[in-house]
């Protein structure tokens, strides 16, 4: 984690750690956050929320894993680009 982004990472962890979706929304609005990107294969926020509070159950990040999202949040499809494999000549 670079020094220039520590404040942003701390804020993201605080947002993901709250237990009330409306509180998360208020925190996001104060920081002008417009998008949340969660990668299904990456447990980054889970690990940091556990480290910060010891429990993930009932937190905002936990609630985002269910199909019922807060009314103010809507999922967007993230297009996956085909991977490119480059070959070198012998």
Helices and strands, in N-to-C order?
HHHH
How large is the share of residues in beta strands? under 5%
Helix content: 40-55%
How many angstroms separate the termini? 39 Å
Strand elements, count: 0
Number of helices: 4
The pLDDT mean sits at 80
| Shape, principal axes of CA atoms | globular
Low-confidence stretches: none
Name the structural class. mainly alpha
CA-atom Rg in angstroms: 16 Å
Largest sheet: none
Description:
The protein has 90 residues and is mainly α. Helices cover 40% and strands 0% of the residues. It is built from 4 helices and no strands. Helix 1 packs across helix 3. The radius of gyration is 16 Å and the shape is globular.
Write the SSE topology:
Blueprint: H1 6-17, H2 21-30, H3 44-53, H4 60-63
Helix pairs in contact: 1-3
What are the main properties of this structure?
mainly alpha, globular, 90 residues
